[in-house]
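Reader question, answered in our methods column.
A reader sent in the components of a multi-part assembly and asked whether the whole thing could be modeled at once rather than chain by chain. We filled in our standard form and ran it. Here is what they sent:
COMPLEX SIZE: two components
ENTRIES:
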Amino acid sequence: MQGNDASDIIEHHVEEEMEKKGTRSHAASSSSSFPGSVTPSDRDGHSGTQSSHRLLAYSDALISIIATVMILPVAHTKLRESVQLLLTTKIAVYLMTFLIVTVAWAAHILFQVIVRIDDCLALLNLACMMLITFLPYTFSLMATFPENVLGILLFCGCVMVIGIIQSVIVLYAFSRPFLLNEQVQISENQTFYKHHILKVIMRVPLMCFLASIFSFIFFQLSYVLLAVVIFLPYISQSLKWCRSKAIQVEESPDSVLFYSYLPNEPLSKDRVEAFSDGVYAIVATLLILDIEDNVPDPTVVQKQFGGSLTAALQAYGPEYLAYFGSFVTVGLLWFVHHSLFLHVTKVTRFMGLLNTFSLAFVGGLPLAYQLTQEFQENSHNELEAIQISCVIIFFAGIFQLAMWVVALYNEQETLHPYVRYGGREHVFMLAKLSLYPCVALGTFFLTCILSMFSAPIFHLMEITVPFAFLVLRLLVRVGLALLRLIFCPERPDPRSVIEQEDDEVTVPFNALIT
Amino acid sequence: MQGNDASDIIEHHVEEEMEKKGTRSHAASSSSSFPGSVTPSDRDGHSGTQSSHRLLAYSDALISIIATVMILPVAHTKLRESVQLLLTTKIAVYLMTFLIVTVAWAAHILFQVIVRIDDCLALLNLACMMLITFLPYTFSLMATFPENVLGILLFCGCVMVIGIIQSVIVLYAFSRPFLLNEQVQISENQTFYKHHILKVIMRVPLMCFLASIFSFIFFQLSYVLLAVVIFLPYISQSLKWCRSKAIQVEESPDSVLFYSYLPNEPLSKDRVEAFSDGVYAIVATLLILDIEDNVPDPTVVQKQFGGSLTAALQAYGPEYLAYFGSFVTVGLLWFVHHSLFLHVTKVTRFMGLLNTFSLAFVGGLPLAYQLTQEFQENSHNELEAIQISCVIIFFAGIFQLAMWVVALYNEQETLHPYVRYGGREHVFMLAKLSLYPCVALGTFFLTCILSMFSAPIFHLMEITVPFAFLVLRLLVRVGLALLRLIFCPERPDPRSVIEQEDDEVTVPFNALIT
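And here is the structure of the entire assembly that came back:
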């Protein structure tokens, strides 16, 4: 390897890289007889074990779909009366489900300790997944029949069974230590790890057990307990974060090493990315899921439009616009998310929380876009629908911006070294992140003032934003040059001039070679 | 690194591992000032470029959702008359869309040559994705109005615009060589690469252009052309495969190296896995997407069931069963797929084709399970629905088995070294792969004979299969031991005895340490 003569930092980093690839690196370094690969039989007698990497990716995909599914009942609500009706039960159910499923996803962290799986663990995990996909339904029951304890009981039953299955997974894995992370495997505190993980896993099922008992006595208390379950991890983590920022605790490197594999530590960046990708992908295609409704019936075309398919399709015009608008917005928000996470090395719990909030609003986007085409033009409802869309876009964007601010705030642990020193990349990143919130805010206030032209303003916004992203890099460069010209016109920065010259020179130079 | 003193093979393998992580390894090996990471500014003047890894993963997720979406119109068809009606247009549309989208996915291979992206490429790719998600709709139009040319025109228009965007991506990337794969970058044949890729990309759009012209003259010919577009890559590849097997061409290592980055070469294993995961995940959750239909209306509960929610929910019993049956079957088929791909190092085009067929049948599973609960018990339709389910499961499983057989057939290039020598892992893999086809076939014939008990037989099958997977390893071991006992009772294999002893000894030994 070319990294042989490099510094310790590189070695450490490369090792981290390979850590992420699951046990491939372990296999490569521990047994030289079968070079670097997922070898089910690389340790004698332990045949049939596999890296947990793909299992985790599949689970993440399942969970991200389930998290966004509850927006569908909201979207399918046919309301011709007022948008305000939407802002009641169904949206609350959607947000709650999203948060619950995200808690379940974050709790599913045990496969960071268990890096190798065998068939038994894979099947247990699938059982666990099936129960998680059932959670939105129980929650939907609770929302429809708040007075009935059946919803609470079903929900708590699911959570308890999930907890039991997860405990079985942990006990099974610790009884076969070759399945564990190498660091846990060689640790002397294996029993401590086991007990700690079991404690973390069983916390939520125990609270659900209490909730299910209280549901027979005084069911309002059960709801309080469930709310605590959902919000507690976030509240405790944000409190912890605030406290650590206030007191500036100096953690010794030992304790960091010791705790780095415990479940309440920062989320794995790969998993956050995979989960976010899943949510963005399903949200982007949510409107096309109703595709069959947009194909007109042949008899209707014959009768109403005299056989002219073009005329029949024109009736669906607004729906195409809604689909494209929603897809473009989700796609661009994914693009911003992608750019942001390129600079991030580690996702703290607080950043994870902000990411969840951002994703929850992204999930509402297709709904908002669908609303904008459902009402008569220039009606009060259309204005409301457009303003709700703007608000949703604004919050989806502003939480992304907040993530960047939080990452900058503790840049030592969260950002790549090369972005820590600021410069043009920083400005560019900020411009990217603030484009959507600014545009959404601008559109919102414009539609308030010029309420007659709300629809044209909104559609103009939809069309211009993608182009704004295309020319953003140019704009930022021009803006910076202008700023430099205004504030220090006498001393042009020599470095940046060289850089820009480089830019111009490199391309033709390379083109000449080819 | 611990691999320092190991053989060349390991080093080569580790480098391959890192290759997969995109440019992280490039950054680590080429510029030691910024240790191993995706560094937007690791080459001066090229700030703002990024690894294309996550973009590709997101695109794969989008495409896999779109491929399976067309099963929804089939599933939502309300037919009380006969199952046979289903087997007409809508299933054909579903299968066609699946194949078309898979062709689009396979053609989206250009990001194997372009390993670094900048903002412009990311946005162009998103535009491309949006058009791909629109393809199922145009296809649906074609199926509903086969005589109208509008469907053909829309479809061809989309494909042509996709082709133009892809060409722009290629031209843009080749004008900035630092975005390209290192191997292409240092190659002297860069222009040849460019022209070859452009040729491959523009083939399909050109045929669509022809189809759109013919649609005005003689539109039946357009359909023929489109069918050619869909099947040609598969037919040509399978013909090529058959020929290469028949003639046994000895390819020189040079030509392999030369062609390994050309788009018509074997698919990337990572991408096949990601695409399959996406399809399995969306199919597993497809039935829960209709979740809102299964929450009873409060007024109905009050009137019809006297306020008893439990009684109201019992009416949905068969639907829960359908959901769990479908989830379990899809989950276990994923599990088999996962086990299979652990042994595979490279996916040939023919294996990719078999995988696509298997996935297409998997996509039909939720529909089949929904059918089984839609008809009256012991009716002729119920029997038909159950038999269709068995047929779908059988084909989904048999194509997986075929993939394994094809992989074994050219094991030199497709399998890990340690599985080439057969043994217990082989037998176990075969048992896993043949479990579902065998069970489905058995259920099919049992329901033919005992048509009165078709539903109980089917539900018994659903319940036993997961347990069969759990005890499969044990069964295979017992079966092998029995075979050994029967055929060579005098000479027990000493190696396996030691291995089994090891198994028993290891666990308590490790437990003692902790």
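What stands out: The beta strands of chain B are 50-51, 116-117. Chain B has a mean pLDDT of 73.
Send us your own complexes using the same form.
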